[in-house]
Amino acid sequence: METVDLARLQFALTAGAHFLFVALTLGLATLVAVLQTRATLTRSPLHMRMVRFWGQLYIINYAMGIVTGLVMEFQFGMSWSGLTHFAGNVFGAALAIETLVAFFVESTFLGLWIFGWDRLSRWAHLALIWIVTLTAYASAFWILIANGFLQNPVGHQIVDGVLRLTDFGALLANPASLVAFGHVLGGAMIVGGFFMAGVSAYHLRRRTHEQEFFRKSLRIGVGLALPATLVTAAFGGMGFETLQPGKAAAWSGGAADLAKVQADMVARFGPGDYLPPVDLVRTAGVTMMLLFAVMLFFSAASFLLMLFRPAVRGLRIWHWLLTAMIPVPFVTMLAGWVFREVGRQPWAVYGLLTTAEAMSPLSATEMRVSLIAFSAVFGLLILVNYWLLARTAKRGPDAVALGSRPIETPAPVLTF
User: Fold this and answer.
1) Domain ranges of the chain
2) Burial 258-283 (b: 16+ CB within 10 A, else e)
3) Where exactly are the transmembrane stretches of this chain (predicted)?
4) Distance between CA 374 and CA 7 in Å, rounded?
């Protein structure tokens, strides 16, 4: 395997793993914010317990996502110095804003939310979780602004062999970014909805004593999953209108379309292979479409079933299927990400910089060592995150530490 292929594989594995954390973080943050709004307005103890339980799962996933994000960004300097040198002045600005939002604003207010239970007014505490949620959206937005530029470079000019940003408005209005943002945000809501419904169904199937707690949670998760699936599909349809010619030809699979794209690229950029890996693009696209159909059918059927109290209480086969569906949105999002990223090959910045030119001057041996190290670290982080989430989810709301008051030990009485 060539050095550039090893570098691409490493970034694909690490970015894909980080993407899983991001999707669940966005979905759970939204659900927790909505739940806390309900609890604050109604002063419902049950809904506040729901905030604490789902909020603790959110915090676990958020913390692991931060770690994977830091590790992933090391690669821009290690493996892709050609990309940062050529285009860092443009897409680097979006990444810098995202870092400020995620690590300074979002993390600060999340810390205040975690440690502010019973120390702040309920309205101030509610405001904190909404700030955390909105900054999470902002973080995703700036990441997709950077990614959209790589997909469809706009608002720039080449000066002394490197890109310079000339139109910040064009960068923000890039359709390759805006449509992807709506698509990813909708996908994250699907992930959060299926996760909440699946965990709740697990407890309902096992007849745990928190039946009312998890019946309400199941309805909320299912109630979010169906509209989120429809919204995601709408943005996905718009995304097909912004496909690069090579990606569109690979998706259609027509030999004439592929030959035309190759001929046009050769005429513009000189000899070379300008077609993406056709089989991989089509496989990822078909997988995404098939799993979307599964989620749409299942979420629609679940939406109808949740209207019947007996089904929510005791339809165990449905509960089992809901739990089994938890990983499906994750796999669907990964397939969509592969379709989006692999489809623009061989370009790192479409039409301006090839992936080979974006590579750092590394040997194949160095890349193999790096790939093994990064894969091991990310594999360990995924296993730890899964174990922590599963352990916390199985224990239920009684074992949640978030927002609980410490047991005060009375001071000893001194006698003489």
Assistant:
1) 3-244+277-399
2) beebbeebeeeeeeeebbbebeebbe
3) 12-35, 56-78, 90-115, 127-150, 170-197, 218-240, 284-308, 320-339, 369-389
4) 11
The Cα 222–Cα 193 span in angstroms is 6
Residue type, 14: T
* CB of 181 closer than 8 Å to CB of 137: no
Burial of 118 (0-12, 13-18, 19+ CB in 10 A): exposed
Cα separation, 199 vs 322, whole angstroms: 8
Nearest in space to 382 (alpha carbons), one of 30, 20, 12: 20
pLDDT bracket for residue 312 (50, 70, 90): confident
For the stretch 157-207, pLDDT in tens is: 988 889 998 999 999 999 999 999 999 999 999 999 999 999 999 999 988
The C-alpha atoms of residue 178 and residue 185 are separated, in whole angstroms, by 11
Q: Over the stretch 66-125, which tens digit does the pLDDT of each residue have? A: 877 777 777 777 788 888 889 888 888 888 888 777 778 888 899 999 998 888 899 999
Q: Across the strands, what pairs with 163? A: 158
